[in-house]
Amino acid sequence: MAVDEALLSNFKESDLPILRLYRWEPSLSLGRFSNLSQSVNLEILKKRNLSFVRRMTGGGILVHGGDISYSLVLPRESLKDIGVKKSYRYLCGFLIKLYEKLELNAKFAHDLNFTTSKSNICMTANEPYDIIIGGKKIGGNAQRYTKDTLFQHGSVPLSLNHNIFKDVFLEDSGLESLATLDRIGKEITDEQLTYLLTEAFSQSFKANFVRDTLNQLELQSAENLLRDKYSTKRWNLNAN
Question: Could you confirm whether domain 2-217 is CATH 3.30.930.10?
Answer without folding.
Answer: yes
